[in-house]
Design a protein that fits this description.
Radius of gyration: 23 Å
CATH superfamily of the largest domain: Aldolase class I
Number of domains: 2
Oligomer: single chain
Order of helices and strands: EHHEHEHEHHEHEHEHEHHHHHHH
CATH topology of the largest domain: TIM Barrel
CATH class of the largest domain: Alpha Beta
Number of strands: 8
CATH architecture of the largest domain: Alpha-Beta Barrel
Shape: globular
Distance between the termini: 52 Å
Helix content: 40-55%
Length: 411
């Protein structure tokens, strides 16, 4: 029986959104939270980008020692052999890759401008897949950028050639968000009728249809007996109008009419949604919209007399799912008295007080001073106060944290 898996692209598509960014520590925390959430894979960065190198290798190390337990860490590259070679020079431990190349007539004519055509695009993808597998990739997905404006016949040819070369998945990218649930279902069904390969569904929200389109694409794969991997971003961040919101996608599969027979990855733990969404909001500096599904301030709020009366009588009258399911319901305590924080100019006494509150002790003064110095760097790195989980991470993995905070210009 096929399954629907989640592949989160917050640390790739999310961070390349205009006007927002994440520090390398924040990207690392996102990976740790995604692992707790039960997401199958995180597209965790760009192995051909110099400032990502230490972060990428540090996170691969976290996976190797079991700090990241089940989450697969995949790098995003262009589907050209030069990128593959550079990726493995920068991060030799990479096991999962997404190789991307444009496939629409629009992109061939107006982006490549005669440098590539139908034939050479497939040749580049095939050569990249073969080289990636040779260099150690366990799983490779080949991405058809602008698939929603590409000829279905060519998408079938493209995905078949990639699969024959050793690709494990095909990514259908609705790059401009121009699909509807009806068109994406038909198009993916047509490709899978000719090429039986697991498919990733990568959609954008330019028409406000991103979650609906993602489900329709996954449904097409499921109905064809094929596994699918819905690409998501936390809180729906992403280029332009955003990508598919992680929590909304899970809620739609679990509670949407007609979706109950579609098997979602059993590792998904929605109870971590509240913590994950709040952290991402803090890290990005973007408030969660008040009306955001599941995690918005009004998701379980009732004011109208009829609604309030109905919800108090039986929550099912006006609530589709329970707030406890998302890890909500516990009161949040705000300390209004004395507060000691740790920053880039903190001293050992204040630092000790903060970690005492976290019930974390150090073997000796030398270890405490080492962690203090790293926490100072972390505050400079983040440019905002560290949250408790970040403080715990630095204390638990100081050597890996040091690598994450370290970047050297290429020139």
């Amino acid at each position: 029986m096929p399954k629907i898996y989640l592949l989160d692209v917050t640390n790739r598509d999310g961070v390349q959104t205009s006007r927002i960014c994440l520090s390398k520590l924040q990207k690392t925390m996102i990976n740790l939270y995604l692992d707790q959430f039960g997401v199958s894979q995180s597209e965790f960065g760009f192995p051909t980008t110099n400032h990502e190198v230490n972060y990428l290798n540090a996170n691969l190390e976290l996976a190797k020692i079991g700090a990241i337990k089940d989450l697969r860490l995949s790098g995003w590259l262009r589907a050209i052999t030069d990128d593959v070679e550079l990726a493995y020079r920068n991060a030799p431990g990479l096991k999962y890759l997404n190789l991307s190349i444009s496939t629409s007539d629009q992109m061939i004519k107006h982006k490549f401008q005669g440098k590539l055509d139908y034939k050479s695009i497939i040749e580049s993808a095939v050569a990249s897949v073969k080289l990636a597998k040779k260099l150690g990739a366990v799983s490779v997905c080949v991405n058809a950028e602008d698939a929603s404006r590409s000829k279905v016949e060519y998408l079938s040819e493209f995905s078949a050639a990639a699969a024959a070369a050793g690709a494990d998945r095909f990514r259908y990218c609705d790059t401009l968000g121009c699909d509807t649930p009806f068109t994406i279902y038909e198009r993916i069904s047509a490709v899978l009728a000719k090429v039986k390969t697991p498919v990733e569904i990568h959609c954008h929200n330019d028409l406000g249809l991103v979650v609906a389109n993602s489900l329709a694409g996954a449904k097409a794969a499921y109905d064809a007996g094929i596994d699918s991997y819905i690409n998501t971003c936390i809180n729906g961040v992403g280029e332009r109008a955003g990508n598919a919101d992680l929590v909304s996608v899970v809620l739609a599969i679990k509670h949407g009419s007609g979706m109950q027979d579609y098997q979602l990855d059993e590792k998904i733990n929605l109870k971590t949604a509240w913590k994950l969404s709040k952290y991402a909001s803090y890290a990005f500096g973007i408030p969660i919209p008040i009306n955001h599904p599941g995690v918005g301030a009004n998701a379980f709020a009732h004011e109208s007399g009829i609604h309030a009366d109905g919800a108090l009588k039986d929550r099912r009258n006006y609530e589709l799912y329970d707030y406890e399911e998302l890890g909500r319901g516990e009161p949040e305590i705000i300390d209004t008295g004395r507060k000691i924080t740790v920053g880039e100019y903190s001293g050992i006494k204040g630092f000790g007080n903060v970690y005492d509150q976290l019930e974390i002790t150090f073997k000796n003064d030398a270890e405490a001073k080492k962690i203090l110095e790293l926490v100072r760097y972390a505050n400079v790195h983040n440019q905002k106060p560290l949250v408790e989980d970040e403080l715990r991470f630095v204390a638990s993995y100081p050597d890996i944290a040091k690598k994450i905070f370290t970047m050297q210009p290429a020139v």
